[in-house]
């Protein structure tokens, strides 16, 4: 029997369990103000759906929607609709995310394009090496393959 399987029986015997007890046996607790993995995944999935729904919207520098977007405007708008406030620029958004490895990336994570330490573009990871993003002037919001290895990943929580 694993420690996780013992949690219900421990709680039944004790009536209640402290956070330390739960942590010791591998359980989890919900804390007010902190997103659970499930709610963070739901938020990210919703943001991804919002971004995809903007397919074909024209790029406009400084635009934050709902009809025109720049790159960080699209991510800001998508996460706002999913219930999470992000800062305005790609660099500010990078600084507000939980940085993760490419191996840990999931659909709904943010993908930050960089040159050295300078973050210059952001999109929302869609899975299979692709992102939803607002590329540049004269282009539109679209799903596109990640074209460089010079990217960092961030998870919104």
Radius of gyration: 19 Å
Count the E strands. Answer: 6
Helical element count?
5
Q: Percent of residues in helical segments?
A: 25-40%
Give an account of the 3D structure:
Helix content is 34%, strand content 20%. The relative contact order is 0.16. It has 157 residues and is α+β, with helices and mostly antiparallel strands. The chain is globular, with a radius of gyration of 19 Å.
At a glance:
34% of the residues lie in helices and 20% in strands. With 157 residues, it is an alpha+beta fold. The protein has a 6-stranded antiparallel beta sheet with strand order 1-6-2-3-4-5.
Question: What distinguishing features does this structure have?
Answer:
single chain; 157 residues; 5 helices; 6 strands; 34% helix; globular
What's the topology here?
Elements: H1 3-14, H2 19-24, H3 37-53, H4 71-81, H5 90-96, E1 98-100, E2 110-115, E3 118-127, E4 130-133, E5 142-145, E6 151-155
Antiparallel strand pairs: 1-6, 2-3, 2-6, 3-4, 4-5
